[in-house]
Amino acid sequence: MIELNQPKVIRAWTFYDWANSAYSLIITSAIFPAYFSAIAPLQIIILGHSFNRAAVASYSIALSFLIIAGLSPILSSIADYKGNKKFFMKFFCYLGAIACMLMYFFDKNKLGDSNYFYGIACSIVASIGYCGSIVFYNAFLPEIASKDQQDKVSAKGFAMGYIGSVLLMLVCFAFLIADEQLHWNLGTLPARISFLMVGIWWIVFAQIPFRVLEETPKHQEKSDESLLTNGFKELQLVWQNLSQTPALKKFLMAFFFYNMGVQTVMYMATYFASDELHMESTQLLAVVLIIQLVAIAGARLFAWISSKQGNLFALICLVGIWIGICIAAYNVQTVNAFYGLAFAVGMVMGGIQSMSRSSFSKLLPHTADTASYFSFYDVCDKIGIVIGTLSFGLIADFLGGMRNSTLGLVTYFILGLLLLIRLRKKDFMHT
Asked: Does residue 1 fall inside a structural domain?
């Protein structure tokens, strides 16, 4: 068993955030969305129906998370009983990184037609790899840090992720700007090299936690035949056990709704800026950089607020700010106003992710199998993203434009806020 609060282990654990956040920034939020919007046709025909390209992007995100929501209970069951969380963390890391590198071949032909279905397929596989590795990565948190240190360690992980991803982003951004300003006329090559670099970066820096983190001993013996179904039985057992931990149950219900809004904003913000405000690629990248840089301070700020006022106060403040952001997004008309909105998103994005992860970890029963509980947390996260991105795409597709979709997200945040208010500050006290 890993000894708690070892600086070397915690530092190594946070480096997985450093490694995989390049995917979150460059593939999910920045270059790939801008690249997809630039080379994919405005309307994409699927099964005889014409869809807006942004709606197709949201549907592909929903599909990838639906797949991983179905897989993670099985994988967590295997990891929990076989004691090989790190093995699966590695497998999904390499799957996602290789998919990113294969995006290098997402391009236009001589006639100007792009193989956008290939690009979408690669993005789906990359998303599965990223999400699959995260569930096992998160499950290590209560095994390396005591409850009183988990806010700080979780925030440190997100801060490391923001710093690492921004460093690689600046390199990619410099290449894109140089091609544009120096008239190298490299076409799509700078963007495609960025996808290649993400995969390499992800694999290389992931070796740091892979060398240091230890496999957790198996909890109990199970026959191989039961492993495929046992994960779902474990989720059912977790659900039943939630009645004995009412605070954890209330938090998960609140998390399900507000996280639905948070994740949808993160995945669709670039598409919104491109289609609604017609921002250029360099402007879109600047927006994402603002969000990432501010998020470093935001994660630490709300960890400090939590240390002074508690997790519940910090979460309620965060969700309230998110409601204001969605309303402002509906009314935003100028690029400069969107930059201001990006600053606000950055302040709360890192804070709410970090605070949610550590709050859940604090509320876990002492005897809990962390893989099973974090699998349940992960399934709540993924199903929420499926519903959020799917509803965002449907509203945009059938009600005309994504501004109406942002108002739809307000509903999710309000529900999350109302459920958070039902909790008490002492529920999050260290025990």
From this structure: no
